[in-house]
Write the structure tokens for this entry.
Amino acid sequence: MDTNLFLHPFALGFYCASIFTLLALYHLFQRKGELSRYRRHISDRMELDSDTLNKLKVEAETLRKENESLRVKVNALNDVPERKLQRDLEIYARAEKRMLINVPGFAPAWETAKSDAHQELTDEEAGKATPKRLFSRLFGGGAPSGTAALPEHGKTAHDGENGHKSE
């Protein structure tokens, strides 16, 4: 009867239920351990992200202050007359580059004008010609009254007032 008691359908159901209960408890504790591990991981990750974000905020604020001080320094340096001249020269150099690239007919005329101006300045500095800058400063920047104005479009210097050549 003892063997019969252990093989009774109620006993067999109890054995199966006990096995499934133990398996369920094992998985339950395993999942609780994983959940606590994930919570610790997320907590650590949030702390790291928070620290990184705080460092980035401090660095951004530092860079913002540094940028503002540099902007003030640049503006102060740009107020110096020599710096204004250098800045204007840089602007003209950049504009010249863009014109040489973008306007096809501009380059040869510009290069000729530049070389002529360079030659004039070289001659003035060498003492071969009178400095035009000195005279334009002393007597005004306008054209002298004795020189003729440029001819109108379609007229030459030999044309009369009505646009026909005089004989």
Summary: The chain is about 75% helix and 0% strand. Residues 9-105 form one domain. Residues 143-167 have pLDDT under 50 and may be disordered. The two ends are 153 Å apart (CA to CA).
